[in-house]
């Protein structure tokens, strides 16, 4: 994660799954069984699924995003959240102060007037105590009724919406989850919400699937072992990197990466190079033309060295490629908001 990253061994729960978990996962004992995962491609699949989940909410909605735009997509989500808040659903929205810098006061006021609780993570306000410009909330989390959750790379804005919906059609990946890890997503949100001064509320309960004392929901019929990995605490800032390294170092056949800002540190680059020497096919998809010019030129320089060591770098043509995914040996995968660069490693949630 958060950056949320579901670390997933996609295999039926049983001896085969446990064997894969022990082989590829950095902490197999922390993998939760019984999850149902649905991969969502770009805004054309992700936004309708998220909006449908919001519309079906009966008790609670939490939405955390890095970028929140006051555009057509932002208006659709605001309208959905406001409607549920008016219906009595508890709605909490948290967005980053830099990523949501363009959101105007009227947009937020309309949300609050209908009962949506809104919190800005690290507002751009140098005069404030504990002001942090570089520490940003790069996570993308939606949890509805503590039963269905979403995590991945898509922000809330027209850049990610499908062309047919008036968006720019950026390529990205998201994941819908049902099962035990949904509570983990909800707890991640709650910790940051309260730490940033949001009104406290009960801890989501893993026993009932919710924290409101409602009857226990039947478990999702999922067959995936999954773990939510986050780097919120300073001592855990390398947790996602360690998950990547473990799987990369155990790869036997293929390593497939999609990463929007692929500037791996020396340790990651060395691990990929060793994998090539073991006979592993390492393929990395990066944007053909990055939305961040400095990253684009830095990547051109860095990738030349990787290519010389046998790592295949493929450039995504067309719209911006914003995904952060990996599949290793067809057994371990990750979908999240974590870029393989020092910004995600050192500064971003």
Q: Would you mind describing this structure in some detail?
A:
The chain folds into two domains: 5-229, Endonuclease, Chain A (2-Layer Sandwich); 234-346, 2-Layer Sandwich (Endonuclease, Chain A). It is built from nine helices and 14 strands. It starts with a strand and ends with a helix. Helix 4 links the parallel strand 4 (90-96) and strand 5 (117-121). It is of the alpha+beta class and 349 residues long. Strands 5-4-3-6-7-8-2-9-1-14-13-10-11-12 form a 14-stranded mixed sheet, with helices on both faces. It is globular.
Give a brief rundown of this model.
This protein is α+β, with helices and mostly antiparallel strands. Helices cover 31% and strands 23% of the residues.
Task: Kindly list the characteristics that best describe this protein.
Endonuclease, Chain A; 2 domains; alpha+beta; disordered N terminus; 9 helices; single chain; 349 residues
What does the secondary structure layout of this molecule look like, with pairings?
Elements: E1 5-9, H1 15-24, E2 32-41, H2 42-55, E3 60-65, H3 72-86, E4 90-96, H4 105-113, E5 117-121, E6 141-144, E7 148-152, E8 173-178, H5 181-195, E9 224-229, H6 239-250, E10 254-259, H7 266-277, E11 281-287, H8 293-308, E12 312-316, E13 324-328, E14 332-335, H9 342-346
Parallel strand pairs: 3-4, 4-5, 10-11, 11-12
Antiparallel strand pairs: 1-9, 1-14, 2-8, 2-9, 3-6, 6-7, 7-8, 10-13, 13-14
Q: Low-confidence parts lasting 5 or more residues at pLDDT below 50?
A: 1-12, 207-218
Strand order of the largest sheet: 5-4-3-6-7-8-2-9-1-14-13-10-11-12
Strand elements, count: 14
**What is the correct CATH architecture of the largest domain?**
2-Layer Sandwich
Instruction: Report, as a whole number of angstroms, the end-to-end distance.
Output: 8 Å
Structural class: alpha+beta
The CATH superfamily of the largest domain bears the name: Endonuclease Chain A
Give the helix level as a range of percent.
Answer: 25-40%
Oligomerization status of the protein chains: single chain
Q: What's the CATH class label of the largest domain?
A: Alpha Beta
Number of helices: 9
Strand content: 15-25%
Evaluate the radius of gyration. 20 Å
The major pleated sheet works out as: 14 strands, mixed
Report the order of strands and helices: EHEHEHEHEEEEHEHEHEHEEEH
Roughly what is the average pLDDT, rounded to an integer? Answer: 89
| Whole-number total of structural domains | 2
- What is the CATH topology assignment of the largest domain? Endonuclease, Chain A
């Amino acid at each position: 994660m958060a950056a949320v990253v579901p670390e997933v061994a996609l295999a039926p729960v049983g001896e085969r799954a446990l064997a894969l978990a022990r082989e590829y996962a950095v902490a197999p004992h922390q993998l939760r069984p019984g999850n149902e995962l649905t991969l969502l491609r770009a805004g054309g699949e992700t936004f309708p699924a998220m909006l449908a989940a919001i519309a079906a909410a009966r008790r609670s909605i939490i939405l955390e995003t890095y970028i929140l735009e006051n555009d057509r997509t932002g208006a659709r989500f605001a309208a959905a959240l406001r409607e549920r808040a008016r219906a009595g659903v508890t709605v909490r929205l948290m967005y980053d102060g830099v990523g949501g810098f363009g959101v105007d006061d009227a947009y937020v006021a309309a949300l609050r007037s209908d009962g949506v609780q809104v919190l800005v993570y690290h507002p751009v306000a140098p005069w404030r105590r504990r002001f942090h410009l570089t520490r940003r909330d790069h996570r993308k989390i939606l949890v509805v009724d503590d039963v269905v959750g979403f995590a991945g790379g898509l922000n809330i804005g027209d850049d990610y919406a499908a062309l047919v919906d008036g968006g720019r059609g950026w390529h990205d990946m998201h994941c819908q989850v049902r099962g035990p890890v949904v509570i983990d997503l909800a707890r991640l949100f709650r910790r940051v919400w309260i730490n940033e001064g949001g009104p406290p509320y009960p801890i989501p309960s893993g026993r009932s699937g919710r924290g409101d004392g409602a009857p226990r929901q039947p478990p999702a019929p999922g067959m995936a072992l999954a773990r939510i990995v986050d780097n919120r605490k300073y001592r855990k800032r390398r947790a996602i990197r360690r998950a990547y390294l473990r799987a990369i170092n155990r790869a036997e056949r293929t390593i497939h990466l999609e990463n929007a800002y692929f500037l791996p540190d020396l340790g990651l680059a060395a691990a990929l190079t060793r994998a090539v020497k073991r006979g592993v096919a390492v393929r990395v998809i990066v944007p053909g033309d990055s939305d961040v010019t400095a990253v684009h030129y830095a990547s051109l320089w860095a990738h030349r060295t990787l290519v010389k060591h046998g790592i295949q770098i493929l450039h995504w043509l067309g719209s911006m490629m914003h995904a952060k995914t990996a599949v290793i040996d067809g057994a371990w995968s990750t979908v999240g908001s974590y870029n393989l660069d020092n910004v995600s490693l050192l500064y971003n949630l």
